[in-house]
Amino acid sequence: MTFNFDLPVNREKTNSVKFDGRQQYFGTTDVSPLWVADMDFAVPECITQALQERLNHPVFGYSLYPESLYQATIDWFARRHQWRIEREWILMAPGVVPSLFAAVQAFAQEGEGVIVQSPVYFPFFSAVTTNRRKLLNNPLREYNGRYEIDFEHLEHCAQQGARLLMLCTPHNPVGRVWSVAELNRVLELARRYDLTILSDDIHCDLIYPGNTHTMLGRLAQPGDKIVTTIAPNKTFNIPGLGLSALVIPDKAQRDAMKREFEKLHVGNSNPFSIAAYEAAYSGGDEWLDALMPYLQTTRDFVADFIAQQIPGIRTVKPEATYLMWLDCRELGLSDTALRDFFIKECKLGLSPGAVFGEGGSGFMRMNIGTRLDVVKAALEQIKNNIS
Prior knowledge:
Elements: H1 17-20, H2 22-26, E1 32-33, H3 45-55, H4 67-81, E2 90-93, H5 96-107, E3 113-116, H6 123-129, E4 134-137, E5 141-143, E6 146-148, H7 151-158, E7 162-168, H8 180-192, E8 196-200, E9 226-230, E10 244-247, H9 251-263, H10 271-283, H11 285-309, E11 323-327, H12 335-345, E12 348-349, E13 351-352, E14 363-367, H13 372-386
Parallel strand pairs: 1-12, 3-4, 3-7, 7-8, 8-9
Antiparallel strand pairs: 2-10, 5-6, 9-10, 11-14, 13-14
Helix pairs in contact: 3-10, 4-10, 5-6, 5-9, 7-8, 11-13
């Protein structure tokens, strides 16, 4: 099969956050939206077919999760990630972000510590603070644009009464794929200090050649307390459908998460989310295998163009995701002025790095999950307004 990722798809007037939310978020519609993390590519045909087949039935009542959905999940992670998941480990969930909030409630009491590693996807912070847990920040260390975990400081955080570590893997926004050695050190600290780990692996399929993503659960030993969030949403561009899953080998921890969902009577999903989820994991391999070279070409073009033609901005090729982390500190602008520069001068809507917490000031996150010609035009706009 062939896939045309250069095909324009008009997303305006579809209630798209990315496009129809520009006025609200940027104060103008006159920006090219390269911010919120969804892509502008049409989803795989297997998904649209599954949705159409379900639509052909005229009743949309309460829906169960079929066993075939669980099997599709198990098969996907076996063939794509060499991770053997048991059926009873899987708990369906209403999205990754609700799962972050539920995990904080399940595994830390009010006032107890939860570790996050900034700069990181901002709901990691709000999941802690909204639930009145103690936020323990373990900032990543940057070396020439490449980020590493500060393990000495991570241990210090663990000693401050932490109960939960929320690990973003692969990391959004810095694009790191953590090595097996790094993941094993995280596990060793978790064992030493009796930490539960919430491993957010929603970007696990979006890995560039030369890098290997290892699911933390693959490295687990009996007694390790790991809750893994998984979903086809980022991989296949269906985040609006919301459905995700948790993989929790430990029954006590699985029951703890179930209780949090039951408190809000969260459990059922809509029939379209179920159909799309199963179709993605059952039939999306060829589409994903075609997508990644396209994203790689775009990623490499962005990195090379910035290095060669845009003074004052630096970036390092991400090892995963379709998000570029732009270091704009040499421009000498405040975060407010930097955001305004991209909006008013460059006519671009990017995500300000400051929203990702400590270490994000002076950065902008650029979503390259769109047509290459759109990305090229955006870079020209930046170049013309800096030089």
